[in-house]
Specification:
mainly alpha, two-stranded antiparallel sheet
């Protein structure tokens, strides 16, 4: 039976092999969606657009981003709890990215893209009235993106917490700091080379 705990922490409820399968499928979907939308993951929480879209230009930085997060979190997990398993960290990273694929697709929805383009076009014209419909679409999409991001981060945190059994606030702070630094470094590296 599904409940709120399952929705926000599927790692305690579902078999790790099932989660791994879903995670690998979501990675493939992220690459396919990136190819379709001309975007890639420059880190686990940053989606960038590409000027020249090729399967390699989408797949390589996306896979590097996910693999970097897995390696760094696995090392941190082993430091915090020697019993941390690699499959649990892989599942944490891949499952947390699953919902972000939805955000990749929003660039291909015409009315959202058109509303964003019109709002951007008005930046240089402060005297013109804001189109209420476009403003509502842009604010609605920003709110939706924020909800998706918060959910993804919740899954990410709960997965790591389940994998490592961390409880001390110092470990949570260390996890947060390592995640932020890792995300920023990965964005810089992948954006520079891809």
């Amino acid at each position: 039976m599904m409940n709120w705990k399952t929705i926000f922490n599927p790692f305690g409820r579902f078999d790790d092999r099932l989660l791994l399968t879903v995670g690998l499928i979501s990675t493939a979907l992220a690459i396919v969606m990136g190819y379709w939308t001309g975007s890639y993951f420059s880190s686990i929480y940053k989606i960038n657009n590409l000027d020249r879209v090729t399967l390699q230009a989408v797949a390589v930085p996306t896979l590097i981003s996910f693999a970097s997060a897995i390696i760094i979190l696995f090392i941190l997990g082993k430091i915090l709890n020697n019993k941390t398993r690699l499959i649990d960290i892989v599942n944490t990273v891949l499952i947390s990215q699953l919902v972000l694929i939805i955000l990749q697709a929003t660039d291909k929805i015409p009315f959202i893209k058109n509303a964003q383009d019109r709002m951007i076009g008005l930046q240089g014209k402060p005297s013109e009235a804001l189109p209420i419909g476009d403003l509502m679409i842009v604010v609605g999409m920003a709110s939706f993106a924020l909800i998706i991001l918060i959910y993804s981060i919740t899954i990410y945190y709960n997965g790591f917490k389940t994998a490592t059994n961390i409880k001390k606030w110092q470990h949570i702070v260390l996890f947060t700091a390592v995640s932020l630094i890792m995300t920023l470094i990965c964005q810089i590296v992948t954006s520079k080379y891809f």
